[in-house]
């Protein structure tokens, strides 16, 4: 363990490292925030869309998941800035309570992490400026200044705020000049966040805001952001409680002074194998877009860490790799009365069988995706619990090798249709084809016209609106 925060007694530190060997090794930790459930790391945060984990309503979140923390993107809420005050900012909450937590009905003991952009985010057509970051709100592309972002953090009071990072998404590989700018701006923006947190007038002893700041680490080689890192360590180290890491490779280059800080990955892993790789480098906390991507594709995750030994040795199946997920669209499940996964104790697996879920998907019933999403999060909870036990036992390295030998490297390909694609899931461009097929054609077909109009189906109405250019998906 290195020395930076060791002056503080362990009970005063939000993040405690329970077990680590060297740098670039898996480690166990615990993130403890006042009034919240402790987050044992490595772990993941529920990745939200407009404040909710996709497909999971607030009551299901409490009753049927064990998610201890969520990541929320501010760009989902600031659509009216700067001309009008967005609804989120109009909500008043009792002192020390977070208006954002109330706004999204998040349980009191769940860790709330806020960043500017979704994970993964849609690249914006306009570049960031010296003072502002481009974002994609529900009404289109906007910019948020570093000052406004800091003010928003004070206003919405999450547990953790991720500092703004100047990363040119969707643009060609930055040249040296642009790289200098990335480092300059990120330093400037992080400084703004720190100084606003501490109160602008330091002499007045304004009370410190209660949230913690996770400083971004740019997806650049260490030499290219030395200037930023030096300032971070020299001027802001006392105000930084964690790191937001945009490229897992950078863990090899982390300066010693920040080794003890919790590391939140913004380098989204594409598969469980990629996740294990990042953990092997010492990453602590993740947002994992592939959980919801699998759910949207109707794929129920089906893996465990470490894989069960008896199956590895395999008899007839020796040499055959197992799939990481089951495509529930396949008609082979239509008569299957087994649960999604044999050893899973989630709501979906204990109450329903594959045939029912296959039927729900075929009927495009929302409940199908709800059940798969509950199950997929339960699989991830068990996966991370297995990882933590494995690190504690000191067998992570060999368990990782066994996992790679047992399972296929990637999740199965999507075969069926997902729920309707939304505006925030893609960037609209010119000459594009429709992202969603027409859901229901009867109302549009002239030969179907009848004096007795059927009750409009919401999907059909959406299809009609899309035709005349009003739907979310038909942006110009
Ligand atoms: Zn399950």
TrEMBL record:
Compartment list: Cytoplasm
Record: residues binding Zn(2+): 344, 346, 349, 375
Give yes or no: UniProt keyword Cytoplasm: yes
Mainly resides where? cytoplasm
Q: Which SUPFAM superfamilies does its entry note?
A: tRNA-guanine transglycosylase (SSF51713)
Q: Which cofactor does it need?
A: Zn(2+)
Q: Which UniProt keywords apply?
A: Cytoplasm, Metal-binding, tRNA processing, Zinc
Mention one GO molecular function.
Answer: metal ion binding
Task: Say which domain of life the source belongs to.
Answer: Eukaryota
Q: Start and end of every tRNA-guanine(15) transglycosylase-like domain?
A: 26-407
PANTHER family cross-referenced by the UniProt entry: QUEUINE TRNA-RIBOSYLTRANSFERASE ACCESSORY SUBUNIT 2
NCBIfam families, per database record:
tgt_general (TIGR00449)
Q: Which family does it belong to?
A: Belongs to the queuine tRNA-ribosyltransferase family. QTRT2 subfamily.
Oligomer and partners = Heterodimer of a catalytic subunit and an accessory subunit.
Role description: Non-catalytic subunit of the queuine tRNA-ribosyltransferase (TGT) that catalyzes the base-exchange of a guanine (G) residue with queuine (Q) at position 34 (anticodon wobble position) in tRNAs with GU(N) anticodons (tRNA-Asp, -Asn, -His and -Tyr), resulting in the hypermodified nucleoside queuosine (7-(((4,5-cis-dihydroxy-2-cyclopenten-1-yl)amino)methyl)-7-deazaguanosine).
List the protein's name. Answer: Queuine tRNA-ribosyltransferase accessory subunit 2
């Amino acid at each position: 363990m290195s020395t930076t925060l060791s002056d503080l007694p362990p009970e005063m530190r939000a993040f405690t490292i329970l077990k680590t060997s060297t740098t670039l090794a898996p480690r166990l930790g615990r993130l403890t925030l006042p009034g919240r459930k402790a987050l044992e790391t490595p772990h993941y945060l529920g990745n939200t869309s407009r404040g909710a984990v996709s497909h999971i309503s607030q009551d299901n979140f409490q009753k049927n998941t064990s998610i201890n923390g969520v990541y929320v993107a501010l760009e989902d809420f600031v659509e009216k800035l700067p001309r009008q005050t967005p609804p989120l900012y109009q909500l008043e909450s009792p002192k020390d309570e977070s208006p954002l937590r109330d706004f999204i009905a998040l349980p009191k003991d769940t860790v709330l992490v806020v960043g500017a952009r979704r994970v993964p985010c849609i690249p914006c057509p306009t570049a960031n400026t010296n003072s502002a970051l481009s974002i994609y709100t529900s009404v289109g592309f906007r910019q948020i200044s570093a000052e406004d972002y800091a003010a928003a953090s004070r206003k919405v009071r999450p547990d953790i705020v991720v500092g703004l990072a100047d990363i040119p998404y969707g643009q060609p590989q930055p040249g040296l000049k642009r790289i200098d700018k990335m480092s300059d701006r990120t330093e400037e923006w992080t400084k703004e966040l720190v100084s606003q947190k501490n109160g602008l007038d330091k002499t007045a002893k304004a009370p410190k805001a209660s949230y913690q700041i996770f400083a971004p680490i740019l997806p650049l080689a260490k030499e290219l952001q030395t200037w930023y890192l030096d300032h971070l360590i020299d001027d802001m180290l006392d105000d930084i409680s964690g790191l937001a890491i945009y490229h897992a490779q950078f863990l090899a280059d982390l300066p010693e002074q920040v080794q003890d800080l919790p590391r939140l990955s913004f380098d989204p892993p594409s598969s469980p194998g990629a996740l294990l790789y990042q953990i092997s480098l010492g990453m602590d906390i993740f947002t994992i877009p592939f959980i919801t991507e699998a759910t949207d594709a109707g794929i129920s995750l089906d893996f465990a860490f470490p894989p069960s030994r008896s199956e590895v040795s395999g008899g007839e199946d020796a040499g055959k790799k197992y799939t990481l997920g089951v495509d529930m669209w396949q008609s082979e499940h239509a008569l299957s009365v087994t649960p999604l996964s044999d050893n899973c104790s989630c709501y979906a697996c204990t109450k329903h069988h594959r045939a029912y879920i296959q039927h729900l998907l075929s009927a495009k019933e929302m409940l199908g995706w709800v059940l798969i999403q509950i199950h997929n999060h339960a699989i991830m909870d068990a996966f991370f619990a297995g990882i933590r036990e494995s690190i504690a036992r000191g067998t992570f390295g060999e368990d990782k090798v066994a996992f790679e030998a047992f399972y296929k490297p990637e999740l199965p390909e999507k075969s069926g249709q997902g729920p309707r694609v939304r505006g925030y899931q893609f960037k609209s461009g010119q000459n594009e084809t429709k992202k969603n097929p027409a859901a229901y054609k009867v109302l549009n077909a002239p030969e179907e016209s009848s004096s007795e109009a059927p009750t409009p189906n919401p999907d059909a109405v959406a299809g009609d609106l899309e035709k005349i250019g009003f739907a979310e998906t038909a942006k110009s």
